[in-house]
Specification:
The chain is 39% helix and 14% strand. It is an alpha/beta fold and 349 residues long. The chain folds into 2 domains: 1-68 and 110-255 and 332-349, TIM Barrel (Alpha-Beta Barrel); 70-108 and 269-324, no CATH class. It has an 8-stranded parallel β-barrel, surrounded by 8 helices. Strands 7-11-10 form a 3-stranded antiparallel β-sheet, with no helix packed on it.
C-alpha cells in the first residue's frame, strides 16, 4: 500500500486524562501536524462530544481507544489478594489528604463495545488502538466504515501480530516513551520485562527492526524531542514521529500546570517505569509515590481506580509527590510555548 497514511511527519500522541483536548488537536493541525483525541477514561458520550467539537474546527484528527485485557478483568484470587494488600498500603497516602480509598473495581472495560459502535456509526479518519489488538473483525468493520486502523506495538513480534489482523499502519513505541507502555505480549517491553522493558537501543533502531519485518506505514514513538531525533526515526524507516512529552508543556496542552511545572523543575532528575499509579507499567518522573510503591501489582485498570482519589487530592493540594507525572526519558528537552513554535522547530527547513 502507499505509505502516505499520515500526511505529515508529526503526530501528537493521544494523551488520556485531559491532555489531548480538541483545542490541542486543533492547534497541532494548524501547525502542520496530526492530532489524536483520547477515548480512554471517557464515557462514550464524552468521546462523541470531543469528536463533534474537533470536526467543527475543521482539523484532521484520529481517535485512540484502549483495548481491554480479559485476563485483567478476571484476575486470579492471588492477584486480587495482592490488590487488597496494596489497598492497605495506600491508606497512609490517602490519610495524608484526608481522603478515602474506594472498594476494588474489577469490571471496567472502558466502555469498549460502546466506543467501537460509536466509531462505526460516526467514523473518523483514523482509529488507533493501544494495550492490545482489537481483533480482525473490528479492524475490518472500521475499515468498511471508512477509517484507517492503527495498532500500537513495542516489538517486532507484536508488529507481526498486528499486521496479521490487517491494520493499515503501526505506532512503534520504544521503552523510552512517556506514560503507559503499549506492550501486550508476555515478555515485551514494559510487560514484566524489567525496569526498562529489557529492550536496549534507540527508537530509530526499534523502527528499523519493525520495518524489516512488516511493510506498513510506521509512526515512531519514544524520545523524539528535536529535529535530530525526528530525522533519525525517519531514516530508520518511519513515515512520521508520534510526540507526547515534547508537547506536554505547550500552551494548548490540557495537562495540569503542576505537571508542566514538574517537567521543568530541577527537583526531578529521573524517570522510571512504574505500575504504582494505574497497575500498568508507565514511565513517569520519579517522585515519592513511585519510590514508596516499587512493587505495585500489575492489574489495570483496577489500580487506576484505587489510586484515583489520592492523585486527585494531590493535584488539588498542589503536591507533585503523589501525582502521576508521565514523562519520557527526554523530558528535560520539553519546551513551553505555543504548539506552533514547537512544531516549527521540528518541521521547518
Amino acid at each position: 500500500m502507499p505509505h502516505d497514511l499520515f500526511g505529515t511527519r508529526i503526530i501528537a500522541a493521544p494523551m488520556a486524562g485531559g491532555t489531548s483536548t480538541p483545542a490541542f488537536v486543533q492547534a497541532v493541525h494548524a501547525s502542520g501536524g496530526l492530532g489524536f483525541l483520547a477515548a480512554g477514561y471517557k464515557s462514550v458520550e464524552a468521546m462523541q462530544a470531543e469528536m463533534r467539537t474537533t470536526r467543527t474546527s475543521g482539523a484532521r484528527f484520529g481517535m485512540n481507544v484502549f483495548v481491554p485485557d480479559p485476563v485483567q478483568l478476571r484476575p486470579s484470587p492471588a492477584l486480587v489478594a495482592r490488590l487488597e494488600d496494596y489497598r492497605s498500603r495506600l491508606r497512609a497516602d490517602a490519610a495524608r489528604y484526608g481522603t478515602e480509598l474506594p472498594l476494588l473495581r474489577l469490571d471496567d472495560d472502558d466502555a469498549w463495545q460502546g466506543k467501537i459502535d460509536a466509531l462505526l456509526a460516526d467514523p473518523v479518519e483514523l482509529v488507533s488502538f493501544v494495550f492490545g489488538l482489537p481483533g480482525p473483525e473490528v479492524v475490518r468493520a472500521l475499515q468498511r466504515a471508512g477509517s484507517a486502523v492503527l495498532a500500537t506495538v513495542t516489538t517486532t513480534g507484536e508488529a507481526e501480530a498486528a499486521a496479521e489482523q490487517g491494520v493499515d499502519g503501526l505506532v512503534v513505541q520504544h521503552w523510552s516513551a512517556g506514560a503507559h507502555s503499549a506492550a501486550f505480549q508476555s515478555g515485551a517491553g514494559g510487560r514484566s520485562g524489567g525496569p526498562d522493558g529489557g529492550r536496549p537501543g534507540t527508537t530509530a533502531e526499534l523502527v528499523a527492526s519493525v520495518r524489516s519485518a512488516v511493510d506498513l506505514p510506521l509512526a515512531a514513538a519514544g524520545s523524539v524531542m528535536d529535529r535530530a531525533a525526528l530525522d533519525a526515526v525517519l531514516a530508520g524507516g518511519a513515515e512520521a514521529a508520534q510526540l507526547g512529552t515534547a508537547l506536554l508543556r505547550s500552551d494548548e496542552s490540557g495537562a495540569r500546570k503542576l505537571h508542566k511545572d514538574a517537567l521543568a523543575s530541577p527537583h526531578f532528575t529521573q524517570t522510571r517505569l512504574t505500575a504504582a499509579f494505574t497497575g500498568r507499567p508507565a514511565r513517569a518522573l520519579v517522585n515519592e509515590f513511585v519510590r514508596d510503591h516499587p512493587d505495585a501489582p500489575e492489574l489495570y485498570p483496577a489500580v487506576h481506580h484505587l489510586t484515583a482519589p489520592v492523585r486527585a487530592a494531590a493535584a488539588a493540594a498542589g503536591d507533585p509527590e503523589r501525582l502521576n507525572l508521565w514523562a519520557g526519558t527526554g523530558w528535560q528537552q520539553a519546551q513551553a510555548g505555543p504548539v506552533a513554535g514547537i512544531l516549527a522547530g521540528l518541521l521547518g527547513g
